[in-house]
Structures are given as structure tokens and as C-alpha cells.
Amino acid sequence: MSTTQKDKPLRKPEWLRKKLPSKGSMDSMQNMVKHLRLHTVCEEAHCPNVGECFGNKTATFMILGETCTRGCRFCAVGKGSALPPDPQEPQHLAEAVKELGLRHAVITSVTRDDLPDGGAAHFAKTIEAVRKLNPGTTIEVLIPDFQGDEEALKAVLKAKPEILNHNIETVPSLYETVRPGADFERSLLLLKRVKEYGGDILSKTGIMVGLGESPHEMTMVMERLVALKCDIFTIGQYLQPSAEHLPVEEFVTPEQFEAYRQEGLALGLVFVESGPFIRSSYNAARALEAVRGKGRRLTDDEKQ
User: Fold this and answer.
1) HSE-up of residue 200 (Cα within 13 Å, Cβ side)
2) DSSP string spanning 62-116?
3) pTM over cut 0.85
4) Going by C-beta distance under 8 Å and a sequence separation of 6 or more, which residues neighbour residue 96?
């Protein structure tokens, strides 16, 4: 069912091969992003879907600069000392959303532990700017943990995004290796508070597989998310960005991804997106439409 790491890096299986992106679509998006002094996580994190998304004129915008203050060993985003937030960034991002005609905007950030509120106020200003210039656009934010600061989270929730996403990224036993500086229980508490303080804001989280987690640990994680009434859960394959990052321990098969999806639904999760190329922001509008449009648990046929 899977390919396991031995003594040398694994070769990508056929199901993880994608066509190279169109140069024209890449150039067009890159020029716009550069002109508006913006960043996208699609490029910074070496996302395998960048060509497809740029070709469809969609992107996940990354605010608060391009330098992360944490040292997660799976992520390709640059690490180090960050510059002060750009006060013009919220308006520039709102203009990009309008130029692209996005009906669903996804906004994430680097982790800014150097800022008193972790960048929460900047998130709120960005949501407000996008909403003002694009009143018909739904908004999803993918936030860091704000080091557990409850008031920082409330500031973002007060701006009323449709979806509040915070990725747990991996199973608890791998946190020290994969996410130094983060804490599994702290991330779950954040998701719990979204349901307590967020009203009808949907909660969402995602995980990478292929880092050495066991199926039993995946079940435990999904059970915890069900208990928190998490609305949307994404599962995707970890891909090593460079030789300096953590190696892939396992290439999970499409069949196992489907088994995880079915298990999550059986346990009580409302919407599960699971597959080798799934990323938390990939086809993000689909989950929103499914969960909010139905107002009830979806059938398996509806989730296809």
C-alpha cells in the first residue's frame, strides 16, 4: 500500500508526477504579484499545484512578508529576521483579488512571533480591505497559532472571514521533529476557540502525511477533530522542498488517501479532502460551497 524510506531519497511514484506549468500563465501572475508588492505561498512554499492554480488565475496570498520567524523543517518559506509589516499590503491584496475576479480569496502568512499580536491586526485589516473592495468575495484565512494568544485570535474572528484555517500539519509524536516551536494541543485549542467565539465562521485544518505517522495516529487526530466540531479537514502528501528539509518517509498511495477520507467521514467529520496533491488552500471554495450550501452532513456521492 505504500513505499517506505530506506537509505536514500525515495523516487516519486507515477501518481505524483505533474505537467510543467504554462510559462505564459506563470509570467502573468508573477508580474501582477510583483507589481503589487505581494507574495504567494504557492511560490514561496514550492507548491506542486502552482502551475494549475496560476493557470486558473487563482493564488493563496501570503501577508506579513516572506520571512518566517520559526524553523519548521518541512517548509520552504525563508526563515530569519522579518521586516515590519507593509501598511499598504491589505489594500494591494484587495486590488489583486479584484483584478483576478476571485469569488473566494485565501490569505495566509508567515509566522511572526516577533510581533506583539503575531500579526493578528494585520490579518484583520486585510480581511476588511478585501471585503470593502470585493463585497461578493468570500474570504478564508490560514493563520499561525499566535503563540496561543486568545485576544489575537478574537481580533481575526471579529473581522468575520468565512473560514478560519489553522493547520495542525502532523501528528503529535512528530511535532518536535517537524514543527519545533509549535504545540499540538495549542493548535487544537485554537480550533476549539474558533467554534466558541466565531459564530458561523467555519473551522478548518490540514495535515501532511508521509513523515512517519501511523494509521493509528491518523485515526486519533481525526477523532480529536470530530470532538472539536472541526468543519473541514484536508490531507495531502508531504514533498521534500530541498535536501536541507526533512526527507519523505513514505509516499502514501491514492488508495490510502481515499481510505483516510472515508474513515474521517465515518468518524463524523463533515468534509474531508484527501489526496496526494491536496493542500489546505487547493480548490478551497469547493469545501465552503459544500458545507455551507447544504447546511447538513453530505452524502458520500455529494463529496465526490
Assistant:
1) 5
2) EES-SEESS--TT--SEESPPPPP-TTHHHHHHHHHHHHT-SEEEEEE---TTST
3) no
4) 32, 33, 36, 38, 61
* DSSP secondary structure string for all residues of 149-176: -HHHHHHHHHT--SEEE---BS-GGGHH
Q: Where are the beta strands (DSSP E) in the chain?
A: 2-4, 39-40, 60-63, 67-68, 78-79, 104-109, 138-142, 163-165, 202-209, 232-237, 250-252, 271-274
Res 172 pLDDT > 80 = yes
Residue with cell 486519533: 220
Is the per-residue pLDDT at 180 higher than 90? no
C-alpha grid cell for residue 40? 504567494
Total of domains in the chain: 1
Residue 13 lies in a domain: no
Rounded to whole angstroms, how far apart are CA atoms 75 and 95? 28
- Residue 5 within any structural domain of the chain: no
Residue 293 sits in a domain whose CATH number is 3.20.20.70
CA distance 210 to 250: 4
Range of the domain at 60: 20-303
3 domain-assigned = no
Contact present, 101 and 130 (Cβ < 8 Å): no
Residue 10 lies in a domain: no
pLDDT of the residue at 89: 93
| Contact between residue 147 and residue 187 where contact means Cβ atoms under 8 Å apart | no
- Amino acid letter, residue 260: Y
For the chain, the C-alpha Rg in angstroms (whole number) is 18
